[in-house]
Amino acid sequence: MLDVRRMQMLAAVVSTGSVTAAAARLGYTPSAISQQVAALEKEAGTELLERVGRGVRPTAAGLLLTEHADAIGRRVAEAETALADLLAGRTARLSVRYFATAGARLVAPAVARLRSERPGVRIELKLAGPDPLPDVREGRADLALVVGPGDHDGVRLLHLLDDPYLAVLPKAHPLAARRTLRLTDLADEPWVGSEWPGPCLDAQLGACAAAGFQPRFVVDSEDYATAQGFVAAGLGVTLIPRLGLGGRHPDVVVRPLRGPEPTRAIQAAVRETASPQSALEAFVAALREAAAS
Questions:
Q1: In terms of DSSP bridges, do strands 181-182 and 257-258 run parallel, antiparallel, or are they unpaired?
Q2: What does the record list as coiled-coil region(s) (predicted)?
Q3: Do 228 and 193 form a contact (C-beta atoms < 8 A)?
Q4: What was the pLDDT predicted at 11?
Q5: CA-based nearest residue to 268, from 163, 136, 165
Q6: Does pLDDT of 279 surpass 80?
Q7: Model-level pTM?
Q8: To 5 degrees, how large is the angle CA 71–CA 74–CA 80?
Q9: Rounded to an integer, what distance in angstroms lies between the CA atom of residue 136 and that of residue 138?
Q10: What's the rounded mean pLDDT across residues 181-205?
Q11: Chain centroid offset of residue 21 CA
């Protein structure tokens, strides 16, 4: 196998036309350069230089290896530049998992900011399944947006915001005249379920338990828009997080809650053992800025 370092020494001799000049450029003695070129000739199985007067010139084989040495040098320089850009966060590829209600409010502005500040960073966005944490833990995703507190092996949770639940009632409901409701005001009402079992529903049920009652669900729905439709039809009341109220049904009213206020914690999950990535840190900062706005 040809030695790349020796090929680069040969290229220096060819470009200067002199072993002595090449040695001065590279910081070696002339005898060291001659020894390395001789070793390269042994590896190549042919002469690479021939004497011309007081200098040297490459043979056809020597010229061939010089051209390849130059190409290798350029590729190494490109690799060094690319590595520096990656370590500085100017370039990277991030894989992000998110859930629908966090998309418009958090993910979209964060991606826009990162693209503006670091156009070389590529972001792969994918709507998360029921549990995106295995993707993060096993390295298939760099970050996932999740709901709920708690410890998860191999995953670190970074708090972004607390998303409060709001009461959604039919426009004609007697409680609609109030500007603010207590959670206990809804204790005897029929409820429209707006969440599947999981941390979002747990946040609602936990607040209701703290207020001293268990909600009576009369119908379940698959999403917040459907839940609003059931409420508008007079089937009951529901709770929907602020981020989930992007589009409001015209026949419902929305009121803040207190005593207690149900809240879901939105977190960014990253792999605990992941190497530091400047681009990932910048994306988390962009998410936090979007959450604070």
A1: parallel
A2: none
A3: no
A4: 86
A5: 136
A6: yes
A7: 0.71
A8: 140
A9: 6
A10: 93
A11: 50
Q: Which residue bears the tokens 């005001």? A: 185
**Cis peptide bond prior to 260, omega within 30° of 0:** yes
Amino acid identity for residue 24 in this structure: A
CATH of 4-88, one of 1.10.3720.10, 1.10.10.10, 3.10.20.30, 1.20.1250.20: 1.10.10.10
Q: CATH classification of 97-159+266-292 is 3.40.50.720, yes or no?
A: no
Other Cβ atoms within 10 Å of 121 Cβ, number: 23
- Helix, strand, coil shares of the chain, percent, nearest 5, are 45, 25, 25
* Whole-number Å distance between alpha carbons of 118 and 115: 5
CATH code for the part of the protein at 160-264: 3.40.190.10
Tell me the mean pLDDT in the region 215-237.
94
Return the amino acid letter for 241. P
pLDDT (average), residues 86-90 = 65
The average pLDDT across 10-38 equals 87
Alpha helices in the chain (DSSP H): 4-16, 19-26, 30-44, 60-88, 100-102, 108-117, 133-137, 199-211, 224-232, 278-292
Token readout for 267 is 């977190």
Rounded mean pLDDT, 241-270: 92
User: Please, what is the end-to-end C-alpha distance for the chain in angstroms?
Assistant: 60
Could you tell me where the DSSP H helices lie in 89-166? 100-102, 108-117, 133-137
For residue 125, give the nearest of 103, 95, 101 by alpha carbon.
Answer: 95
Count CA atoms within 13 Å of residue 82 on its CB side: 8
